[in-house]
Amino acid sequence: MDKVIETRHGPIHARVEGQGPAVVLAHGYHPDSTWRVWENNLAALAEAGFRAYALDLVGYGESGGERLGQRQQAEAILDLLAAEGLAPATLGGVSWGGMVCLEAALKAPQEVSRLVLVDSAGVGYFSEDQMEDVACPTLVVWGEDDTVLPLSNAAWFGATIPGSRVEVIAGVTDQEGVPEWGGHHPMRFKPREFNHILLEFLGAT
């Protein structure tokens, strides 16, 4: 199902599947990014009893408006949670989308029940003190062969976010047909392994 949710910064288009506790997913910064980066994960979440929202952030895909910085995108996601009655929700983001979700969790910790950071940006932007303020269970997933953001960034998040769990997915780009940057999107190119890790985390926290 497709929905458009109004926020203070403009409308957000979401692909929505399933019923249950909400898992809200944000894409990265690339201008062609849309909700479809999560299309291999939505059915698994729905079948496991979650309501998955894969977003086109403001200014991307089928959402209107101008593209915004991560703080404004975080505010828009928080508006979406309020409008849809989803809070507290799990927020998940890949690359720059991870930064957006971190911003939301730091701004409104009571609205965010869990964080899922997939090959997330933010090292060098957030301080260790800020990461120590992350109050919810956090899963960090990284493609071992990510050529965009190094695996060492996963270790930094794991060391600075209290109680966080780090999972590394190997061999993403060893598969036929996967682009050389594919390690940056393990949820797209190794969805079975990623979905198993994600659902185990959601079930345990």
Written description of the protein model:
- There is one protein chain.
- This protein has 205 residues and is of the alpha/beta class.
- The chain has helices at 42-47, 70-84, 96-107, 128-132, 152-160, 186-189, 191-204; strands at residues 2-5, 12-17, 22-26, 51-56, 89-94, 112-118, 138-143, 165-169.
- It has an eight-stranded mixed beta sheet, sandwiched between helices.
- Helix 2 (70-84) packs across helix 3 (96-107).
- The longest helix has 15 residues, at 70-84.
- The mean pLDDT is 97.
Labels describing this entry:
eight-stranded mixed β-sheet, 22% strand, 205 residues, alpha/beta, 7 helices, globular, 8 strands, 32% helix
On the 0-100 scale, what is the average pLDDT? Answer: 97
Strand ordering within the main sheet: 1-2-4-3-5-6-7-8
How far apart, in Å, are the first and last alpha carbons? 27 Å
Shape: globular
Helix-strand topology string = EEEHEHEHEHEHEHH
Indicate the topology.
Elements: E1 2-5, E2 12-17, E3 22-26, H1 42-47, E4 51-56, H2 70-84, E5 89-94, H3 96-107, E6 112-118, H4 128-132, E7 138-143, H5 152-160, E8 165-169, H6 186-189, H7 191-204
Parallel strand pairs: 3-4, 3-5, 5-6, 6-7, 7-8
Antiparallel strand pairs: 1-2, 2-4
Helix pairs in contact: 2-3
